[in-house]
Amino acid sequence: MRTDGEGGLIHRKVFDSPLGRMVLTETDGALSRLDWGGQLEDEGQSTLLDEACRQLAEYFDHKRKTFDLPIAFAPGLTGDVQRAMCAIPIGETRTYGDLAKDLGLPAQAIGQACGANPIPIIVPCHRILGAAGLGGFSAPGGVETKVALLRHEGAASLLL
């Protein structure tokens, strides 16, 4: 456990997923990051991070379709985009344009918010596609990892 320099308490926990090592971060009682790989180790005890790891394990075992965790959404429009991503059911996708229309934002803003998403998988930016392609993805493996997640969720037929 440590602080974020502004007095907020930070905990970290490592989760070994089928896609590789992930490090989850809790800040002030909410999930604030999911980082791919890295050399970070567990920092402090956290019931929230234990639960997040349990829910991720269930997700990868096809036993969970939604996450029920407190999330530290970004402020402003980015947080609005993150909330909209969380509303997309497993096995479904939306385009940047779909979300742009729903939120009254330019598609480029949606793409930027997806690219800046600090909590991939749990805030499912992988479910957002370009109008004529997959779009990008921040994970190691990039688009291949995005496709793997969509296949895992049963959305692969949407990719054909």
TrEMBL record:
Residues covered by the Methylated-DNA-[protein]-cysteine S-methyltransferase DNA binding domain: 80-155
The keyword Flavoprotein appears for this protein: no
CDD domains per UniProt: ATase
Keyword DNA damage: yes
Domain Methylguanine DNA methyltransferase ribonuclease-like residue range list: 11-72
Catalyzed reactions: a 6-O-methyl-2'-deoxyguanosine in DNA + L-cysteinyl-[protein] = S-methyl-L-cysteinyl-[protein] + a 2'-deoxyguanosine in DNA; a 4-O-methyl-thymidine in DNA + L-cysteinyl-[protein] = a thymidine in DNA + S-methyl-L-cysteinyl-[protein]
Annotated keywords: DNA damage, DNA repair, Methyltransferase, Transferase
InterPro entries documented for this protein: MethylDNA_cys_MeTrfase_AS (IPR001497), MethylDNA_cys_MeTrfase_DNA-bd (IPR014048), MethylDNA_cys_MeTrfase_DNAb (IPR036217), MethylG_MeTrfase_N (IPR008332), MGMT_N_sf (IPR036631), WH-like_DNA-bd_sf (IPR036388)
Name assigned to this protein: Methylated-DNA--[protein]-cysteine S-methyltransferase
